[in-house]
Each structure stands twice: as structure tokens, then as C-alpha cells.
Amino acid sequence: MKIINIKGRIIGNGSKWIYDWLDIPATCPKDVSSVLQDVNNEDIEIHINSGGGSVYDGYEIYNAIAEYKGNVTIKIVGLAASAASFISQAPNAKCYMSPLAEMMIHNSSTYAEGQHQIMDSTSQMLQVTDATIAKAYTLKSGKSDKEIRALMEAETWLTSEQAKELGLIDGILFESKTEPKQSYKLYNALNLDDDIILSDLEKCKTIDELKNRLTENLDKMFKNASQNQPTVINAVVENKKQEENKMNLEQLKSDHADLYNQIVQDVTAEAVTNERARIKSINDLAMPGLENLINEGIEKGDSAEKVAMNIIKAQKEKGLQHIQDAKQDAINANLNNVSSVAVPEKTDTKQDALNLLVSAAESITGGR
């Protein structure tokens, strides 16, 4: 991962050679943009420790970072003040701050010389600059322009915690991710930590003293539990009130007549539809000689499935009787070559009855 350092004063490209010659830390826009062009959208880190400098050169650095297509992580490792602070607000970057670092935001400043017209023009220029700088902070933090401008007017210095609370950074470096240790209770009713109870028991020098101390703890626990009893009673009373508030049918009819009538109409219509469907299903089962079963099923309110089972049962009995009659006719006609047909005690389906009829017919005709 490539690291870009923004250290020292923010200066213009044309002045960089002087700072390099004097070996004074400084950063110009070209220092940043040239690296961004070479790394080909790879992940980069930008380390900031700068007191600020030229606003317009800061703009150029901010925009170069904002246009970068790769992942950007900014780390404030010392100071991010003035122009360096708004550089850290690049919208496409994740910004983190060391707990041993600071941020400062303020209004812009400059020098001017001349008549009052020049002073008026300079003042107007600074106001525009302040409004422009404020946009970087509002875009990053989500704070209103009014809130940010108030901080700038006051020249606000921020710790890492304060910067995070304002939304100017995404996190603090080296923060522990370990969950805080929970304090488990030996007796919840006593609300005492294990360490306190164990320390108390360790003071006991004899078994009897230990028993007495444990008994005292139990007495306190039960006393505490009894004091909490009204809370339980209140919960029961509240549930009782909720049950009493349930609306019965008569209250619904009295207080909400329109709703009651609509429900009755809907239920009645659904019942009529279901009844018509039931009768049609039964009529579809109609067969010659079984009209009485159809009519009986409709009158009793039987389902189509039950009527169908009654029809199968009747047909089975009719088929068995026909077999018995055929067998008796064969005996009466002295047809000795008619093989006996076993009549099962129970058959479950219409198909069983039909199979018996076919078997009997084949016996009478000699199997032809």
C-alpha cells in the first residue's frame, strides 16, 4: 500500500524547491497528484501532520484526493489545522485520527494593503473563502452550515473524541475493540458483584461464622424479593385491565354498528357461497338408483366426500348381493363347473366390488 505524507506547510508548486533546498517539510499539490497518477487506483494511505497553509493549494490537494478512484484512508497522526483540516475531509476517504492528535478549524485570513475599496474587496473575498471551506466540513459531518460556521468563527481546537462526535472523522486509531467486561452477579436480588461477596466470605474464620454470613445474605435476598413483589402485582393488575378492555360481540354491535353489519354481511355471503359449492359437489356425484343418498346428504349438511363414501359403500353392498344371487342361480341351474368365488368379509373401494362382479361373471360363462 502506497503512503502519501502531507507534512509541514501547504504551499504552491512553484515554491516547493525552496523548501526542499532549505530542508523544510512542506507539501504542494504536485507531491500528492503525481503519486495518485502512478499508483493506478491502488489502495493508498495519506498521513497528515500539518498546520495548514495556502487555501487554494489546499483546494487542489482536496480535489485530487476526492477524484481518486481507489480506496483512500486518511490518518491524522499529529496536527490537521487550517487548510490541512479540510484536506482530511475528502468525501471518498475514511478518516481516522490518533488519540494523540488534534484538529483545528477556523476562518481564513490574509494580508491586504491599500485604500478602503481594497479592504472591502478583501473582506468579501475572505467571506467567500470561509463559505467554501465550510462545505468540506458539512459534506463530511452532515452538520448544518450554521453549526460549522460557528465552530470556524470560534477557531475551534478538537481532540480525536470531539472530532469523532462532530462527524469530522470516522474513527480513532488504536481504539480497543474488546467488549467491556461484564460484572456477573452471584445474587441478582442483592445486586452485589462476585468479588465483593467472595471478599466478604473470605473474612470468615470459622464454619459457623461462614454459615451466619451466608444466612444474612439469603435473608437480604428474600427481603429484597418481597420488596419487589408490588411490581409483580402491578403487572398482574395491568394484564387484568387489558383483558377487561377486550370488546365482546354485543359491545361491537352497540358501539360500531356499521362495522358489525359489514362483518355479518361478509360472513353470510361467504356461508351462502360455500353451501352452494357443497350442494353442487354432491349433485355431481349423482348416479341412477342413488338419488336417496344424494338428497339425504344435502339435507344433513354432509360434505361431498362423506356422500361419496356412502355411495361407494352402497355400491359395494349391491355388488356383493349381486354375486350371491349369481352364485345361487348357478347352483339352481346345476352348473357344477362354476368355481366357487370367495367373498371377502370387507372391501374398501368401489373397484373391489367391480372386480368381484367380473369374477362371478367369468365363472358363470366358463371363463370365456
From TrEMBL:
GO terms for cellular component: endopeptidase Clp complex. Pfam families: CLP_protease (PF00574). InterPro entries: ClpP (IPR001907), ClpP/crotonase-like_dom_sf (IPR029045), ClpP/TepA (IPR023562). GO terms for molecular function: ATP-dependent peptidase activity; ATPase binding; serine-type endopeptidase activity. One of its GO terms (biological process) is protein quality control for misfolded or incompletely synthesized proteins. It comes from the Bacteria. The keyword Protease applies. Keywords: Cytoplasm, Hydrolase, Protease, Serine protease. Transmembrane segments: none annotated. The keyword DNA repair does not apply. Belongs to the peptidase S14 family. This is ATP-dependent Clp protease proteolytic subunit. It comes from Clostridium magnum DSM 2767. The gene is clpP_3.
